[in-house]
Design goal:
Layout: E1 23-27, H1 30-33, H2 46-50, H3 68-82, E2 86-90, H4 93-96, H5 106-121, E3 125-131, H6 137-140, H7 150-165, E4 171-176, H8 178-187, H9 193-220, E5 225-231, E6 235-237, H10 242-257, H11 260-265, H12 273-276, H13 284-288, E7 294-298, E8 303-307, E9 315-317, H14 335-349, E10 353-357, H15 375-393, E11 398-404, E12 423-425, E13 432-434, H16 436-449
Parallel strand pairs: 1-2, 1-11, 2-3, 3-4, 4-5, 5-7, 6-8, 7-10, 10-11
Antiparallel strand pairs: 8-9, 12-13
Helix pairs in contact: 3-5, 7-9, 8-9, 14-15, 15-16
The structure holds 5-hydroxymethyl-3,4-dihydroxypiperidine.
Length: 450
């Protein structure tokens, strides 16, 4: 096998302005890597069910995924080779509470015990996210986030996790990218009054669930460090038309501010207030806006938007201008926008920032020697980490950076066709092959920690 090292090692100026105690990490999520979908009493999630709908590319499912459920030791060993100080993962809610509430599933909890213990033994800090989109189907059958009871379901689930893991885990995120799972599951459909109200009802109840979980974690875990993870990306019109500009402005407010504004500033953005009003009860904003320790920021690229009159928020994804640099899966590459986004989050929310997702989606393949050479991903990471360094130089309090992702994995509706990993996964043999970006990132972390 070739050495997998065609790219020069990282240069230190890239890191010159970062804090000495900066945290380097990688992120994953339960449904995207675990597999073991029918094992040890795990319940069904909405994604198990959605995978049967025919909507997923190549009819892929999460049944086996990266088989992390069985191979977590090998995966922690890969993290050790990378030299990361932290690993962000999510707990599969239906693995630990098969019906979403009620009786806990001991074998499911025991899996996360083994994972956490393995991480701690490797000196890697576990960052546990409670919700990365795999809602138990049994709760969806009761209305899911549309049901105000969801606030109590989520608080009880948080209590279970806090009680079980709070002795060893201190870093907790309540939700990953609440605007994305709400927008993508609800707003791209056709406009009708009921579903429009449903979007805002779910939005508000996810926000209330966040606040309730923060209180539970705080009460049960001494020294807990808590945040929520938001996807912030500017939404730009895909043409010069007024209609596209209006659509981009409308979706930008929802995408970027519908969750962090009430959580961190105690108010919904003015453009959304009328739509939220029917779902708001006295005291709700105070329930949502609980003290947080950090702001989790995920960022990939700007988003191009066009007007789509019959869609719920009046938008759809639009064409990108021909001169925009793209990743292999067609996402714009623009590190300057990352710098601007970090500044915006710093100014608007004033919390220490951890970048908990950033990475390059490709169509990687092993070459004839079996090596996976991905210079495009290395260039992407170099550009984006450089942009973070300049944000830090201008006073943005950014304290950590986690690559999405440790492994190639189940990329939602794109199935396994889009690859974000520092490690290539051969989905037949389940072998992991560190890509050249893996070695580059390991070298960068080593340089940063010297
Ligand atoms: O894979 C996803 C992840 O689940 C959430 N943030 C964006 C990633 C890449 O699409």
């Amino acid at each position: 096998m070739s050495s997998n090292r065609p790219t020069p090692a990282p240069q230190l100026p890239l890191l010159a302005s970062l804090r000495p105690d900066f945290t380097w990490g990688v992120s994953t999520s339960s449904f995207q890597i675990e597999g073991g979908a029918r094992e040890d009493g795990r319940g069904l999630s909405i994604w198990d069910v959605y995978c049967q709908s025919g909507e997923i590319k190549n009819h892929d499912t999460g049944d086996i995924a990266c088989d992390h459920y069985h191979r977590y030791r090998e995966d922690v060993a890969l993290m050790q080779r990378l030299g990361v100080q932290a690993y962000r993962f999510s707990v599969g809610w239906p693995r630990v509470l098969p019906l979403g509430r009620g009786l806990a599933n001991e074998p499911g909890l025991a899996f996360y015990d083994r994972l956490v213990d393995e991480l701690l033994a490797a000196n890697i800090e576990p960052w546990l996210c409670l919700y990365h989109w795999d809602l138990p189907q049994a709760l969806e059958d009761l209305g899911g986030w549309q049901n105000r009871e969801s606030v109590a379901w989520f608080a009880d689930y948080a209590a279970l996790i806090a009680t079980r893991f709070g002795d060893r885990v201190k870093r907790f995120a309540t939700f990953n990218e609440p605007s994305i799972f709400n927008l993508f599951s609800r707003s791209l459909g056709r406009r009708d009054r009921a579903s429009e109200a449903g979007l805002y009802r779910a939005t508000h109840q996810v926000n209330l669930s966040h606040g309730a979980a923060v209180d539970v974690l705080r009460e049960k875990i001494r020294g807990a460090s808590i945040g929520c993870i938001h996807n912030l990306q500017p939404c730009w019109p895909s043409s010069a038309s007024e209609a596209d500009a209006a659509a981009a402005a409308r979706v930008a407010v929802y995408w970027n501010y519908a969750f962090p504004d009430p959580q961190c500033r105690g108010e919904y953005p003015p453009e959304m207030r009328a739509a939220i009003e029917p779902h708001l009860q006295p005291g709700d904003l105070a329930r949502i806006c609980r003290p947080l320790d950090w702001f989790g920021l995920n960022h990939y690229s700007p988003v191009y938007v066009k007007a789509q009159a019959d869609a719920m928020l009046g938008y759809d994804f639009g064409e990108k201008p021909a001169d925009v640099a793209l990743t292999q899966i067609g996402w714009p590459i623009n590190p300057e926008v990352f710098d601007e986004t970090l500044r915006l989050a710093h100014q608007r929310y004033g919390l220490p920032i951890y970048v908990l997702e950033n990475g390059y989606g490709g169509i990687d393949k092993p070459d004839e020697t079996g090596a996976v050479i991905d210079p495009e991903r290395v260039d992407f990471l170099r550009g984006y980490i450089g942009a973070m360094n300049s944000a830090s130089a201008s006073g943005v309090d950014v304290r950590g950076y986690f690559v999405w992702s440790l492994l190639d994995n189940f990329e939602w509706a794109s199935g396994y066709s889009n690859r974000f990993g520092l490690n290539y996964v051969d989905y037949l043999s389940l072998q992991r092959i560190p890509k050249s970006s893996f070695h580059w990132y390991a070298d960068l972390i080593r340089a940063a920690r010297q």
